[in-house]
Write a structure and sequence with these properties.
The protein has about 600 residues and is of the alpha/beta class. About 45% of the residues lie in helices and about 10% in strands. The strands form three sheets. Strands 6-7-14-13-9-8-12 form a seven-stranded mixed sheet, with helices on both faces. A five-stranded parallel sheet has the order 2-1-3-4-5.
Length: about 600
């Protein structure tokens, strides 16, 4: 199955968007005649794999390389760098050019920034005295379709930059990407934002419409009726909980990147020792589309039923006379056998993780913390994890969940656990803890916790959740309804006003605006009803500023089937995955001391 997802069933026509990105890249290559070496920022490699096939690049005389500190090994006289605007990547490029000059190599250099150049990066090139040796341009890749209903802004470090570094430059990129979507699908009339970053993006978006207006008369009725912007910091409880949907668990244990997962070949039944294979995970796989958003308990049952049914069909086929039509139907079922085998192998591998007592114990403790049942039991459990030296990733995740739901820890407990962590795992993690404090994820208790009030008001804990036949989004965490998606649910039904007092208890301001230039007949009176004078459903664009989990996306898909058609976007590689928020929360965002983590340390 191809890694590039099929977009035919998208609620918006995203194919032209992808085609335009592919065309812009090919034009860059065409304008540089002859054989050339394309050196790609490793992070961008995954993004480009969702836009253009490698074979198409090679047709244009391209040798492919990944950017690293090592010199480029190529016979090409023209070298094209395709990179994000990051200082450490500039230093790699400067090192390459200095190495070539020292060897007397005569080459032409081209640097294309994605999605735009920055003064800081150009200053590095000038200081290294290589700026005059290169041609500089931009490749405006602001948004990448991960699947038919998921787009990514591919800004992995947005959360860390905003919360830890105080760098808000990513907000302009997000606003620019949304504005670019408006150029294709019309200006979005209703904007609801929650969180400092989201409110700022809404303001930037309005300024962009003034400075670079989308012509309302040419666009007609906008295809997206409402934009909901949510800061990740508004709900950091959800990403600290273990995802229990099929796609979520694949991400938890195997890490999804750019719509695929890399596995040992033996896991997928291929007997080639040491070989790894990449398994695409998108809606082009019909079986995956059917089971991706189900609770994992249900997925195992569904796969068992399908395998049993296929076995019965085979038995009937060999023991009775079949008509041509029946034979045709059976052959169609056989065509789905590779998909079935792939997901049975994958589910079996996941079961080796989900059946471990350590995972089940953490899961129980997560529910105990979310329900705010017993502070002492939770504290002692985390203390024991530290003393047993369980993986620091699991310890910190649970500790952050504990801290957030209690509005921090009492000074005595905070100092004690911090000291025990450093003694148990090493003082090299001091920077990690300091960054977690700076981001507000781990802190001393200064005020009474509002978690119980928020939990009750938004009904975040749902008893007796039916995972097989769910009637609430809480099925994605087997009883916990993601706070972020509850907010979306209220925004879709009735806007912010009915829950205004609860919103005030959550981080950051909130806003609710109607963009100018729309008559009442061209907009929706409410999100729960149909559009005025239009026989179509309202389309909602949900943007997570700082990353989103697969479980939250599953919950959004559940809502879209219940209320209205919902299209959701993320600002991290999540979903690539959303794993950028969970795994890289400790690698690129906090634990890693490198300027950029090209090889995440775990």
């Amino acid at each position: 199955m191809a890694q590039i997802p099929n977009l035919d069933n998208s609620p918006l026509n995203l194919t032209p968007l992808r085609d335009q990105s592919q065309k812009e890249l090919i034009n860059i290559l065409k304008n540089i005649r002859g054989k050339k070496c394309l050196v790609i920022d490793p992070k961008l490699g995954g993004s480009l794999s969702l836009i253009v096939h490698t074979s198409l690049l090679k047709e244009h005389g391209v040798e492919l390389r990944h950017l690293s500190a090592d010199p480029i090994q190529t016979e090409c006289a023209k070298v094209i760098y395709l990179v994000r605007s990051q200082i450490n990547l500039m230093k790699f490029i400067c090192s390459h050019i200095h190495n070539d000059v020292s060897k007397g190599l005569q080459r032409e250099y081209f640097v294309y920034f994605v999605p735009r150049r920055t003064i800081v990066c150009e200053k590095v090139l000038e200081d290294e005295n290589v700026h005059h040796l290169m041609t500089i341009g931009e490749y405006p890749l602001y948004v990448v379709p991960l699947d038919e209903d998921v787009l990514s802004f591919e800004i992995d470090l947005a959360y860390k930059e905003c919360q830890v570094d105080g760098d808000m430059s990513s907000l302009w990129h997000i606003a620019k990407a949304i504005h670019k979507l408006e150029s294709s699908f019309g200006v979005i009339p209703n904007v609801r934002a929650k969180g400092k970053a989201s409110v700022r993006i809404a303001d930037i978006l309005n300024r962009m419409q003034v400075e670079e207006p989308v012509n309302l008369s040419d666009m007609g009725v906008p295809e997206i009726n409402t934009l909901i912007l949510l800061d990740r910091e508004v709900d950091m409880v959800t990403p600290m909980c273990s995802q229990l949907t099929y796609e979520g668990l694949v991400d938890e244990f195997l890490r999804v990147n750019n719509g695929s997962v890399e596995l040992e070949a033996s896991i997928m039944g291929v007997q080639q020792e040491g070989k790894k294979i990449k398994v695409p995970l998108n809606s082009s796989d019909k079986l995956f589309k059917e089971i991706r958003d189900l609770n994992f308990e249900v997925v195992v049952q569904v796969l068992r039923q399908k395998a049993t049914s296929m076995k019965q069909d085979y038995t009937d086929m060999t023991t009775t006379t079949q008509t041509v039509s029946e034979l045709k139907d059976f052959v169609k079922k056989l065509n789905s056998l590779p998909e079935m085998t792939r997901h049975i192998n994958l589910a079996q591998h996941l079961s080796t993780f989900t059946s471990k007592p350590s995972f089940l114990g953490r899961l129980d403790m997560e529910h105990t913390i979310v329900e705010a049942q017993s502070y002492d039991i939770c504290f002692e459990y985390i203390e024991e994890m530290i003393h047993k030296q369980e993986p620091i990733f699991h310890v910190l995740r649970l500790l952050i969940l504990f801290s957030i739901t209690n509005s921090g820890l009492p000074k005595k407990h905070f100092d004690y656990l911090r000291r025990e962590l450093l003694h148990s795992y090493g003082f090299e993690h001091m920077a990690t803890l300091n960054n977690l404090e700076k981001a507000g994820l781990l802190k001393k208790q200064e005020s009474k916790s509002n978690w119980m009030t928020i939990k009750r008001a938004l009904q975040l804990v749902v008893d007796d959740t039916d995972t097989a036949n769910p009637n609430d989004i809480a099925y994605v965490f087997s009883g916990y309804a993601p706070l972020s998606i509850r907010l979306v649910q209220h925004a879709v039904r009735s806007g912010w006003r009915p829950i205004e007092e609860i919103l005030k208890l959550l981080p950051g301001p909130h806003s609710e605006t109607k963009r100018s230039g729309f008559s009442s007949s061209a907009s929706f009176d409410s999100l729960t009803g149909a559009a005025a004078n239009m026989d179509r459903r309202s389309l909602v664009l949900v943007v997570f500023v700082g990353g989103v989990t697969f479980a939250e996306i599953s919950a959004l898909r559940f809502l879209s089937a219940q209320v209205c058609l919902v299209l959701h976007y993320n600002t991290a590689c999540i979903l690539t995955g959303t794993r950028a928020l969970i795994t890289r929360l400790w690698t690129c965002m906090f634990t890693c001391t490198h300027t950029e983590c090209l090889n995440p340390c775990r």
